Amino acid sequence: xxxxxxxxxxxxxxxxxxxxxxxxxxxxxxxxxxxxxxxxxxxxxxxxxxxxxxxxxxxxxxxxxxxxxxxxxxxxxxxxxxxxxxxxxxxxxxxxxxxxxxxxxxxxxxxxxxxxxxxxxxxxxxxxxxxxxxxxxxxxxxxxxxxxxxxxxxxxxxxxxxxxxxxxxxxxxxxxxxxxxxxxxxxxxxxxxxxxxxxxxxxxxxxxxxxxxxxxxxxxxxxxxxxxxxxxxxxxxxxxxx
Length: 242
Hints:
It is a single chain. This protein is an alpha+beta fold. It has two domains: 31-198, Jelly Rolls (Sandwich), CATH 2.60.120; 206-241, no CATH class. The chain is 25% helix and 34% strand. The protein has helices at 2-23, 186-192, 206-220, 225-241, and strands at 31-37, 40-43, 50-53, 64-67, 72-77, 82-85, 90-93, 97-108, 117-119, 123-127, 131-136, 142-148, 150-155, 162-165, 168-172, 182-183. It has a 16-stranded mixed beta sheet that branches. β7 and β8 (97-108) form a beta hairpin. 27% of the residues are buried.
């Protein structure tokens, strides 16, 4: 009798789990993640645990990505749409949207357009153009700067949006109040996101390994196996350079 009850409970448990996964299937993101330098903290959708990665991997809708110190990465969608992410930036990736919680991101759109949007704690940007930057400060102030094309910036407080064209920007404070649009130095800001600065490199130097070691040490502690492995790689690189 007890065995029958146990089997029944196991069946109910498995059925419940299968129902949960059926209702919440993982959606593969149609984008490739390329880590140009440093590492990214990855938190899988539906999970509270994070891992630090330094190589490309499959992403799913709802994954959280956080670039660590002196790290930068590129997200490229199948249609060629590109997102560049600077260090200490936290985003959530979705098939037709990006949520930026902090840091600096840059976008260049190709075929994706009006259906895609960028969200921050205070602002929503609708895409009408091709190339622009979205930055969120530590105080949750958002700025949108357009390099090419046009973007509509809307505060999350109901109201009229602001249409921005090349060379124009707008900011929105933590109270979700939009500023008037203003001009910025287009060439100076564009240089910060130039293709030359965002090319992948196969070269691995001691400095980059050292940064990896510091990131692992800060995230997991000095005695974690992952930290120890990177420390061994650092010691090896240093010994080979002598």
